[in-house]
Amino acid sequence: MSTKKDLLPRDSTSNLRYDLSQIKIDKSVNELIQMGKNIREKIPFEQLADFKPIDRDVVSGIQHVESKLISELLPLRHKRLAASPFSFFRGTDELMAYDLSKQVSSNIPVIISGDAHIGNFGFYASPERKLLFDLNDFDEATIGSWDWDVRRLLVSIILTGEQNNLKTETIDGVLKSAIQTYQQILAECFNDHSAMERYYFSTEVETFLKTEADDKDLPKIWRKIRDSAEQRNSDKVVKKFTTIDNRGHLVFKENAPRTVHVSDIRFKQISDHLQKYNQTVSPDVALLLSQFHISDIVRHSVGVGSFGTRCYLVLLTAIDGSHLVLQIKEALPTRRLQGFDVTTQYSQNGPDNGERIVTCQQVLQRASDPLLGYYHNADTGRSFYVRQFWDMKESMNLEKMDEDDFKTYAQICALLLARGHAQSPTAAIVQGYVGKKKKLASDLVTWATAYAKQVHRDYSAFIEALDDGELSKED
What we know:
Blueprint: H1 29-42, H2 45-48, H3 58-66, H4 74-81, H5 85-91, H6 93-100, E1 109-112, E2 121-125, E3 131-135, E4 142-145, H7 146-163, H8 168-191, H9 195-200, H10 205-212, H11 220-230, H12 234-241, E5 242-244, E6 250-252, E7 259-261, H13 264-278, H14 283-289, E8 292-300, E9 311-318, E10 323-331, H15 353-364, E11 373-377, E12 382-388, E13 394-395, H16 403-421, H17 427-434, H18 439-467
Antiparallel strand pairs: 1-4, 2-3, 2-13, 5-6, 7-8, 8-9, 9-10, 10-12, 11-12
Helix pairs in contact: 1-17, 5-7, 7-8, 7-16, 7-18, 8-16, 8-17, 8-18
Pfam family, one: DUF2252
Protein name: DUF2252 domain-containing protein
């Protein structure tokens, strides 16, 4: 795609190296929409419906990925993956990425979440301490084709619906409404809203969710989660995760192997690296952090797919005695490239992975954690990103949703995904491609339904490998 010089040229001394030029284009919205329509002529919707099964060894792929993880945490990781087909799907995104790289796609690039399953949306705090609801996981975020995100969302809806014992026709209805919502929001973004309006849209819970629910009051389940999220702050973290040691110091509690204190050498390394992180946040945040010193550090594993990566909690104490807890997460290459090769035409070799995650998160989210930053460990070649731990973060309990709530929730996720994609100028091409035609929904549902069956086959192979002792199992 042709590009032109940025309106605001990047300073040659800038630390930002993740190249966004592939989604910058010197055409009008109308021209971009027409480009999308032209692509649809060459790659009609029915080609997106055809799932092409890929010959790959699920178990060896998982083992390849896990060769880079902390070995003592693998039994717990496997236990989490084994919980359900949906849990397995959440934790093995590299499998679907590899499969997607072999499917027919429109290949229209935008910044994508890369892992936009239905469980990766949640509540968090804005810098103004307002409660927001948006995409909240960006480990796989990158420049890629829009449909990768949409397809992953759809498959996750199927697996969650099955887990909740919803009827097939009910799940199909939820899928179609989600796709139609995505189409509708993209149309509104580029037909009814200016670039600045697209940039400033609100995801504040009390205003955004009420509006999107046809001005009805928030369902009880939303209110419960909202109230819970508002109580999740640094004070709560300190109360839940720390204790007083025999010297009278506030320290993290241990819960081996999930939560263990780091060695003195690692403590010093992380302390030094946080100085590099400090250079990636805004000046006001850097000044705020200058008032804190490090009191304690533990390795603390979280999640499903990221369980087993190098993640840490850092307890900071301010000059006034207050506390702040930062989370440091290892930033792996996009889609676990050490497992399956999912190199695409948009892949980049140079950028630091922590920088990639932070850059894409700040584009896709309406507002991001002001303490979000990153650093690179030159000695090990590992990348990390840093954020506040908890800080009003909460997610929906998908298993407790009734049919109406589940449908509303899926539509909101699709809406947020469309608005996130719309931050990329090239999303106008996507809008031209998807239009408002109902056939897109039926064809993508056909593909997603076929792929959900592939997930079940992969899950069965994984469980069999656990039972046969090919993969480690928790005692």
